[in-house]
Amino acid sequence: MKVVIxxxxxxxxxxxxxxxxxxxxxxxxxRPILWHIMKIYSYYGFNEFIVLTGYKSHIIKDYFINYxxxxxxxxxxxxxxxxxxxxxxxxxxxxxxxxxxPDTMTGGRLLKAKEFLxxxxxxxxxxxxxxxxxxxxxxxxxxxxxxxATLTSVQSGGRFGTIKMTxxxxxxxxKEKPIEDGVWINSGFFVMEPAIFDYLTEGDETILERKPLxxxxxxxxxxxxxxxxxxxxxxxxxxxxxxxxxxxxxHAPWALWLK
Length: 259
Known about the structure:
Elements: E1 2-7, H1 15-18, E2 27-28, E3 31-32, H2 33-43, E4 48-53, H3 57-65, H4 67-71, E5 74-77, E6 82-85, E7 94-99, H5 106-111, H6 114-117, E8 122-126, E9 129-131, H7 135-145, E10 149-156, E11 162-165, E12 171-175, E13 183-186, E14 190-192, H8 211-218, E15 222-226, E16 231-233, H9 237-248
Parallel strand pairs: 1-4, 1-8, 4-7, 10-15
Antiparallel strand pairs: 2-3, 5-6, 8-14, 9-16, 10-13, 10-14, 11-12
């Protein structure tokens, strides 16, 4: 199953960092948060990624093109213009990077990945949040629901889109960024059926979290996987510093590959 990552936004609330690099490339402990997200999926054996780029997309592309030399031991013979790789540090990843435009909305970006996904189930998440979510359990929850899309819900404050769901996990109401605290919110880490593309009807202007998810909820086709563990988005410099502190002190709950 392919993993799609939304990585094209401006990240204006993290402008101290994103004036130089796109938000998914802001580093936690010397590695982009995008790398951390991919490692979460890779831990469970999902190694084929589609990264939807936009703002400063060339930086994301350059990172993966030069990944081998960045993290490998090399000898550069400048007289013969040759490079010898010694110990290599790589990942079993296949990464497709699609330029989806600087101003395209989330649903519009996803729409541009349609031809690369075919008629297959896929996963989708945001390029700025890490979690210790159990991906196989998430997929099982989605399969058992029989619905078109499943999002991972966590409990947090009023900064993100909230949902109201039945005891079985069917989403009844999807509401983007309300004021209330202590509710279940959308944290990303979606599982989706290809029929989701039928709901992306506004082209580049399609905001996934508005009409598409709201309509799915109205039709009882949006499921929620309740995650009681760790999740944190990197929206501000404070968030970035908190995540870095967790990583540097060896207390990063999302780093399942280090357990």
